[in-house]
């Protein structure tokens, strides 16, 4: 196990780690500045595939955090990256927002409702019965089934909302086909992030707030894992799992140089 001082690059989750309900977590701005001062490559990761990196960069800036869009890696980008490797210049029927459609367009994909190579389910607030029906029929006719992330619910001011995983489960029930999921906890999302910044797993740290996505994927990708307690996990949650993060910290403020 490497010492934290030997870490050359960082991956960090966004919600619950750097921001909490659109407010910066104390220490987050200082940590980002520390990485810039030390010239350490980093990426901010999110399983949310609704937004483009530009949208997220603007959202973080409004929260008081300066993160360029080039330093943001979403499940939508990871999905587009994966599909481009599988079938360059392929086609897809997409249920999702600008995050996934823009990423696929930039990866050279064509959006179509006629015999697509892939049916891709991403995050959206506008699921329609018609588009879900179309997805079910296309998968039944042989299109490969992909989901950007497995999250069953997402947060809102009024409580949980159904998310990608819930809609994918509906389609699975109707087709008998499970999607291939690219986002966390698939370590592929971390490997594509490492490739983007030219990092090596043995000298990269991952900061997250969820045992079931961030930490397990970080461990499987061979990263130094740091769980912070500013999101949804507490000691009771940690004890439920058979694996452990390398470090448990109160917040990202504990990563600041003293």
From TrEMBL:
Matches recorded under NCBIfam families: HAD-SF-IIA
Pfam families xrefs: Hydrolase_6, Hydrolase_like
GO MF annotations in UniProt: hydrolase activity
Keyword Lyase set for record: no
InterPro entries per UniProt: HAD-like_sf (IPR036412), HAD-SF_hydro_IIA (IPR006357), HAD_sf (IPR023214)
Source species of the chain: Rhodoglobus aureus
Signal peptide range: none
Cited Gene3D superfamilies: HAD superfamily/HAD-like (3.40.50.1000)
Lineage: Bacteria, Bacillati, Actinomycetota, Actinomycetes, Micrococcales
Assigned keywords, A-Z: Hydrolase
Record's protein name: HAD-IIA family hydrolase
Family per record: Belongs to the HAD-like hydrolase superfamily.
Highest taxon listed in the record's lineage: Bacteria
SUPFAM superfamilies cross-referenced by the UniProt entry: HAD-like
